[in-house]
Specification:
mainly alpha
């Protein structure tokens, strides 16, 4: 029961479409009709509002962080490996990302989970979160391409978990990384063709 509740908690939190709600509240219309059609911060930035994009980024981060922290406080009873690999805390983590990517309220068409997975990473263990943030920021500064930064960061989280002594979180972070990279398959195609837009682009 703890496992199911943790997964549901994560999913409900992750499924809140903050980007869509904030854009509509600010009079920017439905962001699914512009740019990539995504509900995340990168597409919200295409409305021309940096503060709106920043707010979306922070809230998408929070909806990954909060359910993991709650699951850790409520359900974590010191489970040891290998059970901990798919215990309530990792399930809350993957639930949050699944909720963001496939929200029931939007016909299961959501975002790509990068900011939400950043919150998840910090919730699982702050060193993993720091590694995620450093790689994300560095890749974004270097390439100015959101998809490259996001895919680099999600892979870095799984590697950091393995290297920093959080091996029990590697399976869930690896699964999330595979999901997020799969959701970026169109971006990968554009990258290969040299057509992927940079941050701030209107397309």
């Amino acid at each position: 029961m703890d496992h199911a509740l943790a997964l549901l908690l994560g999913y409900i939190s992750g499924s809140i479409p903050f980007g869509l709600l904030l854009a509509k509240a600010a009079g920017k219309g439905d962001i699914r009709s512009i740019g990539s059609g995504n509900i995340g911060a990168t597409n919200v930035l295409r409305t021309g509002s940096k503060w709106l994009a920043a707010a979306t980024l922070l809230l998408d981060f929070a909806k990954g962080l909060v359910p993991v922290l709650i699951a850790s406080a409520v359900f974590d009873r010191g489970t040891v490996l290998p059970e901990a690999a798919w215990g309530p805390v990792p399930l809350a983590a993957i639930g949050a990302v699944l909720g963001h990517c496939f929200p029931v309220w939007l016909g299961f068409k959501g975002g790509k989970g990068v900011a939400t997975n950043a919150g998840v990473s910090f919730g699982l263990a702050w060193p993993i979160g720091v590694a995620y943030a450093v790689v994300w920021i560095a890749a974004l500064a270097l390439f100015r391409i959101s998809s490259v930064a996001g895919m680099s960061a999600v892979c870095a989280a799984a590697v950091a978990a393995a290297v920093l002594g959080y091996e029990h979180f590697v399976p869930v972070l690896a699964a999330i990384a595979v999901l997020i990279i799969w959701l970026h398959r169109a971006n990968i195609g554009r990258l290969m063709r040299g057509e992927e837009p940079k941050v701030g682009s209107k397309t």
